[in-house]
Amino acid sequence: MTTPTPTHHAQQWLRDFESALEQRDIQRVMALFNDECYWRDLVAFTWNLKTLEGKDAIQSMLNDTLGEARPTNWQLDGEATEANGVTEAWFTFETGVALGKGYLRLKNGKCWTLLTTMQELKDHPEPRGARRPLGAEHGASKTRETWLESRQREAQELGYTRQPYCVIIGGGQGGIGLAARLRQLNVPTIVLDKHPRPGDAWRNRYKSLCLHDPVWYDHLPYIPFPENWPVFAPKDKIGDWLEMYTKVMELNYWSSTECEGASYDEASGEWTVRVNRDGEQVTLRPKQLILATGMSGVPNVPHFPGAETFEGEQQHSSQHPGPDAYRGKKVVVVGSNNSAHDICAALWENDADVTMIQRSSTHIVKSDSLMEHALGPLYSEEAVNNGITHDKADLIFASIPYKLLPDFQRPAFDQIRERDAEFYKKLEDAGFLLDFGDDDSGLFLKYLRRGSGYYIDVGACDLVANGDIKLCSGVGIERINPRSVTLSDGSELPADLIVYATGYGSMNGWAARIISQEVADKVGKCWGLGSDTTKDPGPWEGELRNMWKPTQQQALWFHGGNLHQSRHYSHYLALQLKARMEGIPTPVYGQQEVHHLA
């Protein structure tokens, strides 16, 4: 007698699961799940991004989707593993229209978490590998069109004599990555961006800006960064990479172009998008409109009494050019998150007299600690050497339901808090207000819930702790005077420059500007999980609001997030758009209700 292996357990579960699904025996299916169970589906069953929590939710989803999905051919992909009583396994499957990949976790022989993802439309595969285009046209032809001539013709036609199927507003890393995926799926797409060159959204930020996430986390689709790429890329290097990427991926990228307005015609199923292309008025009529204006929405600029009397400069962090013009000046930075710390440190390096105003507590995590304890197992050189590519890491991370993510994250941040106890004590002794999130779950949950409230320390915290960056914590601005600011505790700070590192509103603020307030309210708030924690009001929604999935406004989509999210979720958004273009039925299960307008 041999002891059954984790692979045997996973194979047996998949066989039983497939058999029950084929026979449409929902009760048998549900018997394979634990009482505490989660099924996260990315497009494959639901044509949505949807997490089902508990047996009743899973059963309801299957009752509605099984007939259309027609899942078959569930196969284990590699060997399963077991640790701490949990068996984990990769698998592949098919639906009626697509090929899929998934990840399974078993406890006591029954399913605890299940991830199913659509990977490819069967009738519309990407031209990669053995299906790659030939490129050269062998033989002789009097009507030969070269690659360059074809590209030039496309640039002349698309948007003028031939309409795109998709228009993407926003040409940063999100819009560029999505456009690359749509290009590979042969979906005619135009990207609109106001800047003169791709990458300018990075180049034009303050000069010390760099990625705080490591290179293994930040690859774009199709073309990963080379092996000698720096761990933390400076902003101008990222800008150049995006410009190169836009060219080599053959994107139809309209730079120096601003969208002046958009409206949707329900009858024709078509958008009217009015743009100013470098002084030329053009009207585009796409079927799908994607706002890729960044996870952050319109800059949040607070108004304080007396602001109009200030004789110095006032700027939002998104407008801050860098420290060069402020040597010897007195600067007040309102805010205490990533941008505030970066800007304060650069100003100090340039001999400005800088004060940070911290109105509420901030989560701080040192970059090296974050890499070792939180990111390292999935995104690091060690992970790559262990066979965990960034694509595989993306799916492993996606397989953790958001409801469980705090429990997965908390141990890592407990280790970080213990490892860096002396560092945190120095900050607190300087008066800095610290937190690890409402439930001590750390950086990622803060990011997902509210997109703010944290700083990945790359050196500024030492300047705060030793007083080089002055700190006023637990206070706000009471009023602004011609040459100073008065704080809520009555103290006064002289100022030549005020920088508002006060974050951004919800992405649907761009919908209000570009389309209408009515449409912005119709789709509601973007981002957040409904965790009922600070700045993330309930009810619980289980997925990020409105991101990468159908919204309450037909044919309007939101795309954004960090480089990891833009890379991973652009895949599922592109598949949803391609299916609609090809007329494949896409019945959406569990469409998100709107609970918050902004």
TrEMBL record:
Respond yes or no to whether keyword Oxidoreductase is given for this record: yes
**What SUPFAM superfamilies is this protein classified in?**
FAD/NAD(P)-binding domain, NTF2-like
Print the keywords alphabetically: Oxidoreductase
Q: Where is the composition biased (Basic and acidic residues)?
A: 139-148
Q: Do you know which InterPro entries this protein is assigned to?
A: Auxin_biosynth/cation_transpt, FAD/NAD-bd_sf, NTF2-like_dom_sf
One Pfam family name is: Pyr_redox_3
Identification of the protein by name: NAD(P)/FAD-dependent oxidoreductase
Lineage of the species this protein comes from:
Bacteria, Pseudomonadati, Pseudomonadota, Gammaproteobacteria, Oceanospirillales
